[in-house]
Design goal:
heterodimer, A: Rna Polymerase Sigma Factor, Chain: A, Arc Repressor Mutant, subunit A, 2 domains, B: alpha+beta, Jelly Rolls, 4 domains, 17 strands, RNA_pol_sigma70_r4_t2 (chain A), sigma factor activity (chain A), sigma factor (chain A), RNA_pol_sigma_r2 (chain A), RNA_pol_sigma70_r2 (chain A)
Chain lengths: ~170, ~300
């Protein structure tokens, strides 16, 4: 056995894994299902499973182990209830030369957009938000979800088309 | 903009300059631009890594994985079990050898089952069972009415659409037509199951239910069902049931005009003389019967 094999059971290694992946997995689950609390619960569960099984998991496989557990857990959890997404909008600018009517229209638009996003298909929503909010490249997303870059491009396209259609019809 | 990845490539800044120019000239461009701009204004909730890590360590101390090694064993076991079930089901479908025995109107029939039990079918009734497995599981399906003289042995089950009857060597009568289920036990012990209610009958007891209501108990005074001796008897049943039984026993059609079919009837009629039967059934109810032809009878209030 090589002397310098990294063990997940070592506290420092485990901490490093947490710092590197916990946040990303959490946001991934959040974009997928739109429930931050549930996402955090699943992350906690996944890392606890990693800890319990630390002696069986080699360091290099830890990341995929975590994602796999998170994906499986989320499927179980979400079958029971579908939550409504809530996205906080950025604080309004304090100084503005925009008219109140314009601001109201803006807020209305944001709300509609919010609804339209929550009505997107799961697969489209996770890809779209990972790219737009998390600023991940298509390649990174493809790797994370285990799909092709082409598939990511298509989902992005479909997500935008569907948002546009929803906003158009709600304006009538 | 017709390709299904166009906007995806646009967002990744992966369009050729011609494509880009064309798109920026189109009406859609501004709308999409607005959406993307607006999405950029959305924020996400904060994930505090340090706090999360602290909680995680606390959580890990008490965390116990629910029987991890067992899960793997169970799964392998489940796969083989599922395979066995599939194969068995396939074999059953291939070799299922159903045998149906039925009676027409105005006909009764005595059947000797493979396990030496004897079934007497009343008119317009049928039993179905699997020839190959009947001796082992002793399960049959009944439509209509039949009298069972069950040979001693393992559990014997009669399935009807209105409920199931399970017995150990005994004599009993089952009536399952329309929504009604009626069981008379003449010897031994019978268990009657309907939906969720279960009733155990000993010799000389009966139970009945017409539709939704639960099973009612009553005493059986006779030693054999009357229809085995060539009569049909009724105790406080709607006249409609009597008419149906007449139709079955004599293979006739009875038209009711203005008769109230819910009136209750107590009495009996024989199976050998139609005129007599009509007289005994309808005279006391103040109902007149007339023959339209040999097989059709019309009823009227007097």
């Amino acid at each position: 056995m090589p002397e310098k094999e990294i063990s997940v059971c070592e506290e420092k290694v485990y901490e490093q894994l947490y710092r590197e992946h916990a946040e990303k997995i959490c946001y991934y689950l959040y974009y997928k299902y739109g429930d931050m609390e549930k996402a955090q619960d699943i992350v906690q569960d996944s890392f606890a499973k990693l800890w319990v099984n630390c002696s069986n998991i080699i360091f290099g496989a830890a990341k995929s182990f975590l994602y796999k557990i998170a994906k499986n857990a989320s499927i179980n959890a979400v079958l029971h209830q579908k939550t409504v997404l809530k996205y906080q909008s950025i604080e309004q600018k304090t100084y503005t030369n925009e008219s109140p009517e314009f601001q109201m229209e803006e807020n209305e638009f944001m709300e509609k957009l919010n609804n339209a996003i929550s009505e997107l298909r799961e697969g489209q929503r996770e890809v779209f938000l990972l790219n737009r909010i998390e600023k991940k490249t298509y390649r990174e997303i493809a790797e994370m979800l285990d799909i092709s870059v082409k598939a990511v491009e298509k989902r992005m396209h479909l997500a935008l088309v569907s948002l546009r259609t929803k906003l158009k019809t709600s304006n009538l | 903009m017709n390709e299904d990845d166009f906007l995806g490539r646009w967002l990744a800044d992966d369009l050729s300059s011609e494509e880009k120019d064309m798109f920026e000239d189109s009406d859609d461009y501004l709308a999409y631009k607005d959406i993307v701009k607006a999405v950029d204004r959305f924020d996400r909730p904060v994930f505090d890594i340090d706090k999360g890590l602290k909680n995680q360590k606390e959580f890990n101390k008490t965390y116990k994985e629910p029987n991890a090694p067992k899960v793997i064993k169970l799964r392998t076991w489940l796969y083989s079990a599922a395979a066995v079930v599939v194969v068995l089901f396939g074999l059953r479908v291939m070799f299922f050898d159903a045998s149906e025995i039925s009676t027409d109107m105005a006909q009764t029939r005595i059947i000797n089952l493979p396990d030496n039990s004897i079934v007497t079918l009343n008119a317009d009734s049928a039993i179905t069972y699997d020839k190959d497995t009947f001796e082992e599981d002793r399960v049959l399906t009944l439509k209509g009415e039949a009298f069972f003289d069950v040979a001693k042995g393992s559990k014997f089950t009669v399935q009807t659409k209105n409920g199931n009857i399970a017995v150990l060597g005994t004599e009993f009568d089952v009536y399952a037509r329309d929504k009604k289920l009626e069981v008379h036990c003449f010897e031994g012990k019978v268990q009657v199951t309907k939906d969720k209610s279960v009733v155990v009958l000993t010799a000389g007891k009966g139970t009945k239910s017409s539709g939704q209501e639960s099973l009612l108990l009553f005493d059986v005074t006779r030693l054999k069902p009357d229809w085995l001796n060539g009569t049909s008897s009724f105790d406080q049943v709607p006249i409609s049931e009597v008419i149906q039984e007449l139709q079955r026993q004599y293979n006739v059609k009875i038209n009711t005009q203005d008769i109230d079919l819910n009136r209750l009837f107590t009495g009996f009629f024989g199976h050998d003389d139609l005129k007599k039967a009509l007289k005994t059934s309808f005279e006391p109810m103040n109902i007149r019967y007339t023959f339209k032809n040999k097989k059709t009878i019309e009823l009227q209030n007097k």
